[in-house]
Amino acid sequence: MLAMDQGVVEEWLSEFKTLPDSAVSSYAASLKDKGSLIPAIYKVIRENYSDLLEPVCHQLFEFYRSGEPRLQRFVLQFLPELLWSLLLAPSAARDPHTSGCIEALLLGIYNLEIVDKDGQSKVLSFTVPSLSKPSVYHEPSTIGSLALTEGALANHGLSRVVYSGPHLQRETFTAQNRFEVLTFLLLCYNAALSYMTSSSLQSLCQLSSRVCICGYPRQQLRRYKGISSRLTVTSEFLVQLITGIHYALCNGEVDLGTKALDDVLYRAQLELFPEALLVGNAIKSSQQCAALKSSASKEGARSIQVEITPTSSRISRNAVTSLSIRGHRWKRHGEPHAVTLSHWPGHSDPATPGGQGSSVPEISVTMPNGDSLRPRDPRPLIQPEPELLGSASEVSPTHDPGPRGQEVRRQKSVRRLVEEGSGPCTAGRAQY
C-alpha cells in the first residue's frame, strides 16, 4: 500500500472521531467528493496484512450504526469485497485476527438490519404479483386461459404473500449459518443497488465469478490464479448474486456482468439449483437484445432494462358494430338470390327538413348468374302516402313524366324480380 493511500485513510479515520452529531449529515454528503478515499479503502481490505484494517472496519460499523442512510450506503458499497475476504480467509494465508475484524463488521451489520428501531425482529413480506393484472413485464391477454384462472382468484381477493423472518441474532459465523447471513446481507445490498458505484458493481461481478469457478475446470479458462479449493454455495445466495449482476449488466458493466452470469449459471448447473437456473436463464434470454450494449452507459441514469410485451388492443378488430353491419353482405344458403343492405351515398332521408336526415339503406338483388340489379334512388323504399299512390297508379307507366310514377314502377319491378327469382336482368340493368 502506498504511503499516499495510507495517509488518506488515516485522515478519514481521524476526522470522523471529532465530528459532532449535528454535522453527521453534511459530512455524509461530502464523502462522495473524496475520490481517492474509496480506492484506498479497497486496498486496505484486499491486503492480507494491514494495520489499518481493524480501525477501518470499526469506522465502517460506526457509519452503519449511526442510522444516516448515506453513511449506510457508503458502507454497503464495500460489501462484495468484504464477503470475498471472508470466504477467502479459510483457504488463504491471512492473519486470523484481521479476518476476525471483517467477521465482526458483517455480523454487526446483519444484527442491525434484522431488527427495527425499537429492537423488535423484522418480518419482511413480499407480495407475489398476479398474472391477471398487467405489469411492465406482461399483458394478461397474451397468456390465454391462465389469465382467466388468475383473474378468478384475484376477484376473490386471493393474493400470495411470502414472508421472510424473523431472523435470529448471530454472534459468530459457523458452517451452518454462514450463507444464511451472507444471503441476507446481499439482500440489503441489492436494495440499494441504484446508489452503488461502478467499482462496487465490478467487485460484485468479480465476487460472483470467483465464488462459482474456484476449484472447477472453468477456473483455468478464466485464468484466475487465486485459491483452487471449491467454495460451498446455496441456491438463495446465487439468486441474490444474479440480481446484482442483472443490474450491473444494464448499467455499464456488460463484459464483467456477462462473464459473471455465465459463471453463476455454470455453477448452478453443476449443483442442480432450479431457482438460480430459472432466474439466470430468464435474465440471459432478456439480454439478447442488441440495445443492451448500445444503450448501456456508466454515466447514464441507473435503471433496469426489460423487454415490454406490446399492449394488445382492448377492442377486437373483428367486433360487430353498426358500421360493419351496414357493409356486410348477408347470404342465405339454399336461396337462388341474396339481398344486400348497404348505404346509399349522397342521399338522405327526405322526411327530414333540408334533406339532412338519416341515411336510407339500398336494396340490391343478386341473381344466380351473378348479375346485380340496383336502383339508383332509395326513396321508393319509403312508404308514400295513400293518395299519392293512387294518383300515381292511374298514370301511364310509359308516358308519366313525374318522378312518383318512376318510383312506383321501380318498386314494382324490384318486388316482381324478388318474388319470381328470374327475369330479364340485362334489360333491367339497361333500363335503370
Outline of the structure:
This protein has 432 residues and is mainly α.
SS field, number of helical segments: 19
The stretches of 5 or more residues where confidence is low (pLDDT under 50) are: 290-298, 311-316, 331-360, 380-399, 422-432
Rg, nearest Å: 40 Å
Q: How would you characterize the largest beta sheet?
A: 3 strands, antiparallel
Number of strand segments = 5
Shape: elongated
Query: What portion of the residues fall into strands of 2 or more residues?
Result: 5-15%
The total tally of domains equals: 2
Termini distance? Answer: 104 Å
Structural class: mainly alpha
Summarize the helix and strand pattern as letters: HHHHHHHEHEHHHHHHHHEEEHHH
Look at the structure and give the mean pLDDT: 74
Reconstruct the topology from this structure.
Layout: H1 3-17, H2 24-30, H3 37-46, H4 53-65, H5 69-76, H6 79-88, H7 96-113, E1 124-127, H8 145-155, E2 161-164, H9 178-191, H10 198-213, H11 218-222, H12 235-249, H13 254-271, H14 274-286, H15 291-295, H16 322-326, E3 338-343, E4 361-366, E5 372-373, H17 386-393, H18 403-420, H19 425-431
Antiparallel strand pairs: 1-2, 3-4, 4-5
Helix pairs in contact: 1-3, 4-5, 4-7, 6-7, 6-10, 7-9, 9-12, 10-12, 10-13, 12-13, 12-14, 13-14
Organism: Esox lucius
Keywords: Cell membrane, Cytoplasm, Membrane
Biased composition (Polar residues): 358-369
